[in-house]
Structures are given as C-alpha cells and as structure tokens.
Amino acid sequence: MELLQLLYGTNIIRIEDKIKSIAKEYVGALDDFNYTKLNFKETPVEQIIEEAQTLPFLADRKVIVVEEAILFTAQKSGTSVSHNIDLLIDYLKNKSDDTLIIFTVLSEKLDKRKKVTKLITERGKLIEINEMNESELTNYVRSVFDQNGLEISTEALNMLLEKTSYKYEAVHNEVTKLVLYAEGNITTEDVEEVVSVSLEQNVFLLTDFILKNEKQKAVRLARELILQKEEPMKLLHLVIGQFRLLYQVKILNGEGYQEDNIARALKVHPYRVKLALRHTRKYPLDALLKKMIVCRDIDYKFKSSYLDRNALFELFILEI
C-alpha cells in the first residue's frame, strides 16, 4: 500500500468512509494508539513530520490523517500557523518511516502546478471522491437495509432518492433514520413519514409550481420554507439558479449534448440535469429567457428596495 495518499472531493461523509476503509486495511482495528487526526490549518508541518516519524506505542503500525490539507489546492492559506512547506517537501521526497499519511481536502480539484502536488502524485496515490450515481446509490441503500434485515420497495426507494436529491450525505442520514424507525419492509408511507425533503428538492418543487402557473401552491411552499428559517434572499438566488440551469440545459440539449455531458459541462449533479431536462422539453427557449429577465429585475429590487423581503419574494412568485 502507498504510504502517502491524498483524498479530495466535496462529499465529506464519503471521504470519511474511505479514510476508515484505507486505515483499517493498513492497521486493522482503529484505536488511539494507531490512528491520529491532525488539522493542517492548526498543526505546524514540523509537528506533522515528528508525529509521522515517532514509533507507534502499543501498535505495529499507525495512520495519520491530515485534514484540510489546502496546500494541494489553489486556496489561500487561511491557517493559524506558519508552515514550512519546503520541509514537508523534503520529508515527502525522503520518507522512510512506516507511517501511513492520508491527506484530505474538501475541494473539487487540486492545483497540479504546485511542486508539493506533483510530488505526492509521483510518490503517493491520489483518490478523487465523487458523488455516487443513481445506480451506486441504489445499491448502497439496498445493502444497508439488507445488513439490518430490512427490505425497501422500488417505489419507496425512488421516493427516498428524490426527496434527498440523490445526494449521498442526505441519503446516508435518512437511511440511518429509516433503519431505526422501520420494521420489516420499508414502504412509501414510511419514507413519507420519516425522510426530510432537501432544500434543493423544495426549490425544484417551487420552480415546478411557478412554471405550471400554480401560484397558490408556490406561495404556500415559499411561506413554509421561510417558517423553516430559510432567508428570502437565499431562496430567490436558488430559484434564479434553477431557472438559469433550465436555460443552459435547454441550449446544450438543443446542440446535441447528452445528460452526462451536460452535467460535466455545467459542473452540476447529474440528477439536477435529469430533472431540468424533464422541464425544458415543455417550454420554448424564449419563454425561459423571459423568466430570466424577471429574475434579473426582482434581484435588483431585492438589493435596492427597503420593502419587506418576504413580501418581495411572494411578489416575485406572482410576477414570474
């Protein structure tokens, strides 16, 4: 096994799961003697190296996880300590101890121009943690329920994935709740009762109501979200972002791009593109463009008016 590894991506739970899997493969059961977590933003390089070179106590091997390792990205330092990166580079070049070091960073991409990134690419292993696709999520959910002696119907599984917007972190949390709640077979009634609707899914529903001209439903949902402490300005920008996505997907689809290609081009979750494609087939491009113009105008009102934000957001729903 490579003793230098770098995990990066935006899904913290999947990263944590992968860390545990790699660490257990190297040292077996994890405990305080063979598993240490350090934070790069708070721990000087000298201390990280010293910890790596210190022989494990009451253990044959050990693992060090260095979180928030932003030195491998283009992010600005933002650390509370001053790091001697040259010292770290020298250690990585000449590493001779048996400690497994796992660097992690929440970032979609690395800065591959940096010397330290090139070095760990040559001497270690890079692992990108992507979001699960629909098939992987389905297998994950069924495996968790199977391990707990539970089954879930296809309808209930689809409802679970839709309510969580096909996001692993949300799916993971809601599956945990269902395991504690359900007995035997998990039904759509169980999912309806237990699983929370993600903000992203609510914004999709809100946009759907607006496009269908179901103003009363849209206003009712908006009021529910505001009661849940969602800020009107945040909701406005999320809805504007959804209309912008619909407009972009409509254009790319018209140019022959397929679902996966659109997701990669726009750097958004494939599920969002899947939902957008359902809508864009129903509306001409000029209709979506008009919606975009209304979004621009109401955004200006939000930023320049002293009127109540809640009232302005409802006015936006009624106007668009």
Automatic annotation (TrEMBL):
Primary enzyme class: transferase
Pfam family, one: DNA_pol3_delta_C
Organism name: Jeotgalicoccus nanhaiensis
Protein name: DNA polymerase III subunit delta
Reactions that this protein is recorded to catalyse: DNA(n) + a 2'-deoxyribonucleoside 5'-triphosphate = DNA(n+1) + diphosphate
TM spans (from-to): none
Entry keywords, A to Z: DNA replication, DNA-directed DNA polymerase, Nucleotidyltransferase, Transferase
Residues of the signal peptide: none
Domain DNA polymerase III delta subunit-like C-terminal: 200-319
The EC number(s) this enzyme carries: 2.7.7.7
Taxonomic lineage of the native organism: Bacteria, Bacillati, Bacillota, Bacilli, Bacillales
GO molecular function ontology, one term from the record: DNA-directed DNA polymerase activity
Family of this protein: Belongs to the DNA polymerase HolA subunit family.
Residue span, DNA polymerase III delta N-terminal domain: 6-129
